[in-house]
UniProtKB/TrEMBL annotation:
<keyword id="KW-0804">Transcription</keyword>
<dbReference type="InterPro" id="IPR009594">
    <property type="entry name" value="Tscrpt_reg_HTH_AraC_N"/>
</dbReference>
<feature type="domain" description="HTH araC/xylS-type">
    <location>
        <begin position="196"/>
        <end position="294"/>
    </location>
</feature>
<keyword id="KW-0805">Transcription regulation</keyword>
<dbReference type="Pfam" id="PF12833">
    <property type="entry name" value="HTH_18"/>
</dbReference>
<dbReference type="InterPro" id="IPR009057">
    <property type="entry name" value="Homeodomain-like_sf"/>
</dbReference>
<dbReference type="Pfam" id="PF06719">
    <property type="entry name" value="AraC_N"/>
</dbReference>
<protein>
    <submittedName>
        <fullName>AraC-like DNA-binding protein</fullName>
    </submittedName>
</protein>
<dbReference type="InterPro" id="IPR018060">
    <property type="entry name" value="HTH_AraC"/>
</dbReference>
Amino acid sequence: MSESIYEQQNELSQLIERHSGQDGVYESAIPSLFLIRRSQVTEPVYRVYKPSLCFIAQGLKEILLAQERYEYGPADYLISSMDLPVIGQIIKASPNAPYLSLKLEFTQSHILEVIHDSDIQITPKENTKRAMFVGQIELSILDAILRLVRLLDNPKDIPFLAPIYTKEILYRLLQGQYGVSLAQIAMEGSNTYRIREAIEQIITNCDKPLRIEVLAEIASMSISSFHRYFKEVTAMSPIQFQKQLRLQEARRLLLAESADAADVAFRVGYESASQFSREYSRMFGSPPRADIKRLKEKYV
């Protein structure tokens, strides 16, 4: 790691520490920028990652996408180029050296705008790529990130400069090692773009029965091609994808509402309460009632 990168990471750590102060996830004054601080390792957290850039200034994190493991720290950045259900766990943090990171969310429109306004050449028919990847941080990317976060000390500059710096960050990422993979979500006609539209349909109708033929039609693919490309992008089948969404939502409802497990099972789309309990136990390690009891005792 170069001395310049090391110095900028130290400054970024100080900025995140100053603007968070305590453990938690903080939505900053900069649109779509979140700051995260944790002073100890965490247990696995299940959530859907929106399209975003994640960068760690201090600490280490592990992400599981289906059976794939991504570990990244201050020398790396992680990109999720579309909505993906994942398991995240902070694996290096302490009170003396807390985990400090940021997440910058973006949309397909943001990527398309940068491509249109720059001279970056992208071929729509590139091979389908995984929608999550870890890249090695570059000084040009880190410099743009740091200038964006510095705006938190100058709030009056945020409306004008934050969109410019955000655009620059995406521009640098599109020029990097995984630029083609990132660009595919915005290139109409690419297989990744078409899978993204099917994913949006699954998320919107998560509690409805999965109709593969409808999803394949949305993606303008045969059923066999849709299955193949969907797994290439997400690392899981459409049914596995929907199952993770349903179980994550069920857990959220059980925690938020103290609702009956059978009722929640039907609300998220299960027709059988026993099947729901089996799949819930398989994903979270224990049946709904025991799992929620443990979580409430741990965090309340």
